[in-house]
Write a structure and sequence with these properties.
Chain lengths: 308, 590
């Protein structure tokens, strides 16, 4: 597969996942702010911005509208829903010969229909449409692509983006706040509330919630699950490119990074991870972006032939 | 049904309308179409037309216009060409392509045509399109015009004439494919009336043509790529569609790298050898070592690789001399010279401004003629006398006198019209036709139909997408009383060599064609169409084995309980092994 196409697919995976997760996080948090008439909206809006690394000094008077303008519909900002979808669509346009036509058409239609402005009263509808469209794209990808390189790069992008997003949400959460309501909010931001409630039979405790989001191997939105999926995808990619059985560990730079995060989170006592939680989550983000760069170096930027 | 029939107020009165005659009656070949559309009723027709337009937007069927992605308008009323006329058109197009091949081969090698006094030496020497770097080069299978688009117009007399030849990078075939798909979805009833020749075999034929062009020492299946300038090119949609439907990589310049005169592409598995490049960039931007040193799109060293015989680029570099409109004026003579045949499709009458007496006549009648630059494409630089202002004509007169080599002149052709849906309803609009031909070296295949372009502004005679043009699906009818022939290809004998004995042979192959031809298959295709031999399949149920088991055990209902899973020695077992080895061999070949 062409390196340029592989690169595009990886980023389609990332941007579609980003649009979907951003919609989910904004939906839960902004709706809570709108419903809650008691407290100041400005600082809470700033907190939402902080999750996406978009907070500024002067953001204490932010309105819900301002958050929507920046993180929902700003097409020029690849961290916004509209911006992420637009970049995903641009990448898809350059990779049409490997993407199923339906995937392209779905991304194209979604982008064409993006609103130019969005009022808080209409935001629910917009978030819902975004989630639906992203589900259509990921569903089509899963149902129609062979598990070849194209699928693996899309998958890798999706999983690394999810790891990044969830570590951001977790980072912004104060683990010493043990009130049920904030814990539920955390779970809902990750679309994990229903799965959690079923797994823990209704007991809402912050430690359990963090453990669930970080470590549950069978919950597809937990960081551990995403790491395992990313590792698997990297392993298959390596085999497709002639790497042999990794009897003595692995030479693959991206796999080493991913494997290390996974080992560190899963094989340390949870209390140890929680002790300096904010910093640990920041390190997850740094490591995930290092993995992204390692993939770039190995697959998207091949070396010249000898003598060239 | 609507109260006013769809075509009741249609006036194609000029007598050059392809669908209706001067009395307003539908022509024979179009009667089924007029009936079917009228039966729909105007309201339903408009609803369908809108969904057709919407579908194009959703599918991203666009062209780039002034930096903006725009949907390419498709008109819901198709053009109809009957079987008899099509067979004449396709023979004429194939003849033209064969003559162009001879011409290009000659220009880049012996220039016999100049020595024999058929083409003036000045023409070849003054053409800006002759690429000196390619002098003496002959491609492995001799083909230089793998893909061509010969633009035709129907004039006042009703017959097709050639307007120009495109042997460089003719575009538009993707719209032929997507127009058909969209029409079949939106207006299924149109296809139930009359067998319409299929167009969807084009990508397969194209791939076959490109593979046939591969360097002789290619190991295994040749690796073909499509080279695009990138997604901001106006025809990017087409590049992507062709790559996708052929199942090959769509590469941009920076994806390719030349090392030791070989071309490689950068892939996730490192660098991979490329054998054939379907080039959709202009020659000028292909190789900064030979052409423009400032080009960022090109691949340095690619011309060296071509000359070393390590890669083939289609269409060949330097084909522009065939598109030169001055060359065009000699095409009827060239067809007679190279093929010893009379041209099947005539040219539009043309004056060469180089010739002093013609120049005088043209300058006198400038206000009634169409003047075109010889190197223009896409309608660029054309001046239409009757609609130009006096100052424009004066300016033109000066330019013509200064550079007579640079221009040709033609009478205003009364282009045919076809009903086209506009705001007010169906109205006559001018059309042209670009049939596409593929030359694999064994034969020239012409895609049934081609791209019908419509000039959407009222009265506009220049038909081009950059001038607000749209397109129509082009129905080529199969001849009546015969089943539709999906793979129906009009093929003619083709000779690549300029060697005169062979070219004469080639000319004998071309016989006047009457009515629809039976598809003529090459030997390879015939082989492929035979049913696969039984050894290629492993049946899920091995009935012989099953029967043996039943006889042994007497439990016919439970073959799965067999104690002996190993199949007995026999032909089935051998079959399985054969298949295995075959697959293994194929894998090695890849």
């Amino acid at each position: 597969m062409l390196s340029r196409i592989a690169d595009s697919l990886f980023w389609i995976g990332r941007y579609v996942e980003r649009a979907d997760q951003t919609a989910r996080i904004l939906e839960v948090n902004l709706e809570a702010i709108m419903e809650d008439t008691g407290s100041e909206r400005g600082p809470r809006c700033a907190e939402v911005m902080r999750i996406f690394g978009a907070a500024h000094e002067e953001d204490q008077d932010l309105s819900v509208q301002a958050v929507l303008d920046e993180l929902a519909i700003d097409r020029g900002n690849p961290s916004s829903i509209a911006g992420a979808l637009k970049v995903a669509r641009e990448n898809a346009r350059g990779a049409r010969e490997v993407l199923p036509t339906e995937v392209w058409e779905s991304l194209n239609t979604t982008t064409l229909e993006l609103p130019r402005s969005l009022r808080p009263a209409r935001m629910h509808r917009f978030f819902q449409t975004t989630k639906d469209r992203c589900a259509v794209v990921t569903g089509l990808v899963d149902a129609s692509l062979p598990r070849d390189e194209a699928w693996l790069f899309l998958r890798l992008g999706q999983q690394l983006e999810r790891i990044d997003m969830f570590s951001r949400i977790l980072q912004s959460h104060d683990p010493t706040d043990t009130t049920g309501a904030t814990t539920i909010m955390l779970l809902r931001s990750c679309s994990a509330d229903e799965a959690y409630i079923r797994s823990f039979r209704g007991q809402v405790r912050v430690d359990d919630a963090v453990a669930f989001l970080l470590l549950d191997r069978i919950f597809p939105r937990s960081i551990a699950h995403c790491l395992l999926q990313a590792d698997e995808a990297l392993e298959v990619l390596g085999k497709l490119h002639g790497q042999t059985f990794d009897r003595f560990g692995t030479e693959d730079a991206a796999r080493r990074i991913v494997g290390r995060i996974e080992a560190s989170l899963r094989f340390r006592p949870l209390a140890d991870v929680m002790e300096d939680f904010e910093r640990e989550m920041e390190q997850v983000q740094i490591a995930a972006s290092a993995a992204s760069r390692a993939i770039d170096a190995q697959y998207f930027d091949p070396d010249l032939p000898p003598g060239a | 049904m609507s109260s006013t029939p769809l075509f009741s107020s249609y006036q194609g009165s000029t007598g050059t309308d392809e669908m209706f005659d001067a009395d307003g009656g539908a022509r024979d070949s179009c009667a089924f179409l007029a009936d079917a559309l009228t039966t729909l009723g105007e309201e339903e027709f408009r609803v369908r037309a809108e969904s057709l337009a919407r579908a194009y937007l959703d599918q991203g069927i666009t062209f780039d216009y002034a930096g903006e992605e725009r949907p390419f308008p498709i008109d819901p009323i198709p053009r109809v060409i009957d079987a008899e006329e099509w067979s004449m058109v396709s023979s004429g197009v194939a003849q033209r392509v064969r003559a162009l091949e001879h011409l290009l081969d000659d220009v880049y090698t012996d220039r016999r045509v100049v020595a024999d006094g058929v083409l003036p030496a000045e023409l070849v020497e003054s053409s800006t399109y002759v690429v000196e770097a390619m002098r003496g080069y002959r491609p492995p299978n001799g083909v230089r015009v793998h893909i061509s688009g010969i633009d035709l117009v129907r004039d006042g007399s009703g017959g097709f004439r050639v307007l120009e030849d495109n042997a460089r990078t003719p575009s538009g075939v993707s719209y032929v494919l997507s127009n058909r798909r969209a029409m079949a979805r939106t207006f299924p009833e149109l296809f139930s009336q009359q067998p319409v020749r299929r167009v969807d075999e084009y990508p397969g034929r194209l791939l076959q043509t490109l593979r046939a062009a591969a360097p002789e020492d290619t190991e295994g299946e040749p690796t073909v790529v499509v080279l695009t300038p990138g997604r901001f090119n106006s025809a990017y949609f087409e590049h992507s569609l062709l790559a996708r439907t052929m199942g090959v990589e769509l590469v941009e310049g920076p994806d390719l790298v030349v090392s030791h005169d070989r071309v490689y592409m950068r892939t996730t598995a490192g660098l991979r050898r490329v054998d054939v490049i379907y080039k959709r960039t202009d020659d000028d931007f292909l190789d900064p070592e030979v052409f423009r040193p400032d080009s960022m799109l090109g691949v340095p060293g690619i011309v060296r690789a071509i000359l070393a015989g390590n890669v083939v680029v289609a269409n060949a570099i330097g084909n522009g001399v065939a598109d030169d409109k001055l060359t065009y004026t000699y095409m009827p003579d060239l067809i007679r010279y190279y093929l010893a045949e009379d041209p099947i499709l005539p040219n539009v009458d043309t004056w060469r401004l180089e010739d002093p007496s013609s120049r005088e006549e043209v300058l006198d009648r400038l206000d009634e003629l169409v003047v075109k630059p010889v190197d223009g494409s896409g309608g660029k630089g054309i001046v239409i006398g009757p609609s130009a202002s006096a100052t424009e004509l004066d300016e033109l007169r000066v330019r013509l006198q200064k550079d007579p080599r640079g221009w040709i002149a033609q009478p205003v052709v009364q282009l045919s019209t076809i009903p086209t849906l506009v705001e007010e309803g169906p109205e006559p609009r001018h059309v042209d036709l670009r049939p596409f031909a593929l030359n694999s070296g064994d034969d020239v295949w012409v895609l049934p139909g081609g791209l019908t372009r419509v000039a959407l502004p009222k009265g506009e005679m220049v038909v081009n997408s950059s001038r607000g043009g749209g397109s129509k699906d082009t129905f080529v009818l199969s001849s009546r009383g015969r089943p539709t022939q999906g793979g129906g290809a009009v093929t003619q004998g083709q000779s690549q060599s300029t060697d005169s004995s062979r070219s004469e042979q080639g000319s004998e192959d071309l016989e006047p064609v009457e009515g629809e031809q039976e598809p003529s298959f090459t030997a390879r295709e015939r082989e492929r169409s035979e049913p696969a031999t039984a050894t290629a399949a492993i049946p899920i149920l091995d009935e012989d084995e099953l029967q043996e088991l039943e006889e042994e055990q007497g439990t016919p209902d439970e073959p799965g309980t067999s104690e002996e899973p190993d199949s007995p020695e026999g032909p089935q077992c051998a079959d399985g092994q054969d298949t295995g080895t075959e697959q293994e061999a194929r894998r090695h070949a890849e």
